[in-house]
Design brief:
Helix content is about 40%, strand content about 15%. The chain has 17 helices and 14 strands.
Length: about 400
């Protein structure tokens, strides 16, 4: 069986995180992704440490299953190359500051004149319209403006960023489902379309509980540490050697937690803890009572007790611990691969498991311009013409002498 997007041509003009995440998943699904980069810098994340043999490991993790064409689109010949590729593209992705692609003449309106079936997706900080439409934006800016930093961390503390680039990834995932939906629509109608999302909106879309509470009762979602705003006990608790998470957020789980895990049946009849509503009202006292028990034994002891009682819970791991955990190994979430410059390396595994062919890690991330010659040959450029374009600085290949091992 073929992967679902095999034969689908993607032109990827994105940089850093949001767009490259989106195009990586399109590549995982089988699409032929051509990443168009400037040179000699390329995607800005190529500068990120750590580097092995001058190649960014972080870039390599995020840009697998892609080809790299290093192209000077300010040169008319570079623009001509882009247009030839755009004419055969099914999907185009970009995350420039709004207005840049129009100035370059590579925006949706320009491309759709000669490729009306193209699905064209833009990702930006705040969207293509509105009062902030011309404003540049990074993940940290969107986290701050979306209210997310005010609801992260501990009460009374400074605003806290989510530990990962949450709004970036949210934007990439949002663009991804928009692209797949638009492509399915094109299969039915033959018509392409333009779609766009932003770091700000994609992050806001991930706050349905907070949205409901605010518009339902005027509640402002403030920082609660690891606690849940609607259920208790539902947080991380101290143990004798670390922390354990507990999700005993309904009557059955609460009963099991009190009797089978903590051996505290009296909590069931304590008026402060009898119902979810009263547990939330007395959440500080509840934490003190629970930690008085849990700090007597190590985390592993309580995880075993929670599992036996069928109460959701788990250890609070450091990243190094989860990366070497037996479950992650069994689920193939750390995958070994060979990169042509880095050499043996590891990449994040596929988070979707399926009964049929859906996603696959087919090839490592490219070096800058690794496929420049290959891509041009594929659209009809002769060898002498390609050599001239290299000589004139229209295209680039960081390791042209290694072209023979191009993947």
């Amino acid at each position: 069986m073929a992967l679902p997007l095999e034969g689908v041509n993607v032109l990827d003009l994105t940089n850093i995180m949001a767009g490259p995440y989106c195009s990586m998943v399109l590549g995982d699904m089988g699409a032929d992704v051509i990443k168009i980069e400037n040179f000699p810098e390329g995607d800005a994340s190529r500068r990120f440490d750590p580097k092995i043999n001058d190649e960014s490991y972080c870039f390599a993790v995020l840009n697998r299953n892609k080809k790299s064409l290093a192209l000077n689109m300010k040169d008319p010949r570079g623009k001509e190359i882009f247009n030839k590729l755009a004419a055969r593209a099914d999907i185009i992705t970009e995350n420039f500051r709004p207005g840049v692609i129009r100035k370059l003449g590579i925006d949706y309106d320009s491309v759709s004149r000669f490729n009306p079936g193209v699905v064209y997706a833009s990702m930006s900080g705040f969207g293509q319209t509105g009062p902030y439409g011309k404003k540049g934006g990074f993940d940290i800016i969107a986290q701050g403006m979306s209210g997310i930093m005010m609801m992260t961390g501990y009460p009374g503390g400074r605003p806290a960023k989510v530990g990962i680039a949450m709004n970036d990834i949210a934007s990439g995932v949002t663009a991804l489902y928009g692209i797949l939906g638009a492509y399915i629509g094109r299969l039915r109608s033959g018509k392409g379309q333009y779609l766009e999302t932003s770091l700000l909106e994609a992050g806001l879309a991930w706050t349905p509980w907070e949205f409901g509470a605010y518009f339902g009762s005027g509640e402002l979602p403030t920082a609660t540490g690891t606690r849940h705003r609607r259920a208790a006990p539902y947080q991380a608790y101290r143990t004798s050697d670390g922390y354990v998470t507990v999700g005993a957020n309904n009557d059955k789980l609460w009963n099991n937690f009190c009797t089978m895990v903590c051996a505290k049946p009296e909590w069931l009849t304590d008026a402060r803890f009898a119902k979810t509503s009263t547990r939330l009202q007395n959440v500080d006292a509840l934490e003190q009572e629970i930690e008085a028990v849990l700090t007597t034994k190590p985390t592993a002891h309580w995880v075993e007790k929670l599992d036996a009682a069928e109460v959701p819970g788990g250890p609070v791991f450091g990243y190094d611990q989860i990366m070497h955990d037996a479950h992650i190994k069994a689920r193939s979430m750390v995958v070994d691969m060979d990169h042509p410059i880095i050499g043996p390396m590891k990449t994040i595994g596929l988070p979707i498991k399926s009964t049929g062919e859906l996603t696959a890690i087919r090839k490592p991330a490219p070096w800058l311009g690794q496929h420049s010659a290959d891509v041009l040959h594929a659209i009809g450029y002769a060898g002498a013409d390609v050599d001239a374009l290299f000589a004139d600085g229209v295209i680039y290949d960081k390791y042209r002498e290694k072209a023979a091992i191009s993947a």
